[in-house]
Design goal:
567 residues; alpha/beta; three-stranded antiparallel β-sheet; 23 helices; flat
Length: 567
């Protein structure tokens, strides 16, 4: 196939449908949302440049080493799309898209497919307002929604119009819309106006998508080997999604170990438990690099180490089994049940490292489980992985290897305490007031026994719509009116609540049905009732401080920390 460097958009959409363009394993999945895809259509209608598409036809020999996949016609945002293993039936003249997958997939869906069951329609009689910045009225609609709106036309129905069919189409649609929108006396004037607007929009659409060569296609020399293409790909920074080192590393893993894509997808599906967590291949790759003695930094050259590749192949099932047990520990012992409270996924790698190195693959429990819990939370409070994370992982791995080699049955908490204290400036190992103030949600999750993003008033709501918020028990507004706005923001006056429930209650004062940690404690409840009955500064501060003291004691006991910070 000879590449036309200046192509018409609809021609390329047709070629994608015929399988003449494929996505190599180097590429991540489709990540554009619906609005970004519609913005691309608007940009094209306005004549804006949309960047070049980079493609490559590898040699026959190289092609058989590169997994790839077709573009998706019926895209489902909840599904993982895996690459296909190369086989002789593949078209030898298919281009592999190195840069521009997001744009091409969006265009293909617009003309040939659907996104979560919705198709792209153009509002044929749309007249953009001056402040709309060239919006041409593209929308994703279900079939039922489109039937209720006769002005919405699917792109596939517009693109096929020619000089013989366009007039009839415009005339028929303009008459239907004018009869619907105005009274009979104004119908004719409305019809003529609609006719002009619809004709203009259709002419513009056909001009941009089916007449002008709007796509710039750049072909990489097909003589390049895969290593050179990886280097080119890494340097590309255009209108498409910028890929990280870990994406390149994972693509190379898939190249050498074809079964890894499916295995990683299975692992991530289990770890994320639907939408509770947000683990990705970055985490899996980083964990494998540390555990299998490659150091934490992402480097493509590490995948050229046959010993590492062989180790990853032979031991990935062990890693997967440890991750399953680690998630159970995270739920049951650490009480971290959703990604909101997992401050750093990287902080889990030393625990995983210990499980793999020591051979203790079951769910951590007993003394080790509690020691791991202390380490994990203290690494959050101390922000251990907030800077130079790779160096931190390497240093912990080095220290842990020696300690576990000497005593494999014991998680080396003393060693980690010393290292976390060193990273924190060497001043103390313990919790101070600023930890409770700066990580209020983390603290509240502990005392609440592990919180999930569930709205009691509507359990069917999707977790993504149920962001957990730190809420005031005694609202700011009534306290501010009494001149107490300086004492309202405090861990003793905080609780966790999902956003919809927080919005429903507005600035409602607490009552007998208000849920928060400490209600069963007699001292807290007595102070709470006194503040409700007579809201003044002494009563409120007593409630706040009594509850804060209970929270601090509970958290320190949970983490088995001394009451006074140790220097």
């Amino acid at each position: 196939m000879n590449l036309n460097p200046n192509a018409r958009i609809h021609d390329v959409a047709d070629d994608i449908g015929r399988g003449l363009y494929r996505i190599p394993s180097i590429q991540r999945g489709y990540e554009w949302g619906q609005q970004r895809a519609l913005k691309l259509l608007d940009s094209i209608m306005n004549g804006y440049p949309i960047g070049a598409i980079m493609v490559w036809i590898p040699s026959d020999q190289v092609r058989m080493d590169i997994p790839s996949r077709l573009f998706v016609a019926a895209y489902d945002s909840k599904r993982d799309y895996l690459t296909d293993l190369p086989h002789e039936a593949d078209s030898l003249e298919s281009y592999l898209v190195l840069d521009g997958q997001q744009r091409l997939q969006s265009l293909y869906l617009a003309f040939k497919g659907s996104y979560d069951g919705e198709r792209v329609y153009m509002e044929a009689d749309y007249e953009p307002l001056e402040e709309s910045n060239g919006d041409f009225g593209f929308h994703f609609l279900s079939a039922a929604e489109a039937r209720k709106r006769p002005e919405m036309v699917h792109l596939a129905d517009v693109i096929k119009l020619d000089s013989d069919t366009k007039y009839k189409f415009v005339d028929s649609l303009a008459r239907r819309l004018s009869e619907r929108d105005v009274d009979p006396q104004q119908c004719d004037a409305c019809y003529k106006h609609k006719q002009r607007v619809i004709a203009h929009n259709i002419d513009c659409f056909i001009d941009q998508f089916n007449i002008k060569p709007r796509l710039l296609l750049q072909e990489i020399d097909r003589r390049q080997d895969y290593d050179h293409v990886l280097e080119i790909f890494e340097r590309v920074n255009s209108a498409g999604m910028v890929l990280s080192k870990s994406d390149l590393l994972f693509s190379t893993i898939k190249l050498k170990l074809r079964e890894m894509e499916g295995k990683c997808a299975t692992t991530l599906d289990f770890l994320n438990q639907g939408d509770r967590h947000n683990f990705n291949t970055d985490f899996l790759i980083k964990a494998a690099l540390v555990i299998f003695e490659q150091k934490a930094k992402y480097e493509v050259k590490k995948l050229r180490d046959d010993n590492f590749v062989r180790t990853l192949k032979d031991r990935y099932d062990e890693l997967h089994a440890c991750l399953r047990q680690l998630l159970a520990w995270l739920d049951d012992v650490a009480l971290i049940k959703c990604g909101r409270f997992l401050r750093s996924q990287l902080a889990l790698i030393p625990i995983l490292d210990y499980m793999m190195f020591s051979g203790r693959r079951d769910k951590p429990d007993g003394e080790n489980g509690l020691a791991m819990r202390e380490y994990l939370y203290m690494s959050f409070f101390f922000r251990t992985f907030s800077r130079s994370a790779d160096a931190v992982l390497d240093k912990i791995h080095e220290k842990m290897s020696d300690a576990v080699r000497n005593e494999p049955s014991r998680f080396p908490i003393q060693l980690l305490r010393a290292y976390l204290r060193e990273r924190a400036g060497g001043l103390f190992y313990g919790l101070q007031d600023h930890h409770f103030a700066g990580d209020a949600d983390l603290v509240l999750n502990i005392v609440d026994g592990g919180v999930l993003q569930i709205d009691p008033a509507d359990p069917s709501r999707h977790p993504k719509d149920l962001k957990l918020e730190v809420d005031h028990i005694f609202p700011r507004t009534p306290l501010a009116k009494l001149g107490m706005d300086d004492v309202v923001d405090h861990i003793g006056n905080y609780r966790l609540i999902v956003m919809p429930a927080n919005r429903r209650k507005l600035a409602k004062m607490p009552g007998t049905d208000t849920a928060f940690f400490g209600r069963t404690n007699p001292e807290v409840e007595s102070a709470h009732q006194a503040a409700i009955n007579d809201l003044n500064r002494p009563n409120f501060v007593k409630f706040r401080d009594t509850r804060a003291s209970l929270i601090q004691t509970t958290v320190k006991g949970f983490l088995r920390l001394p009451a006074v910070a140790v220097g």
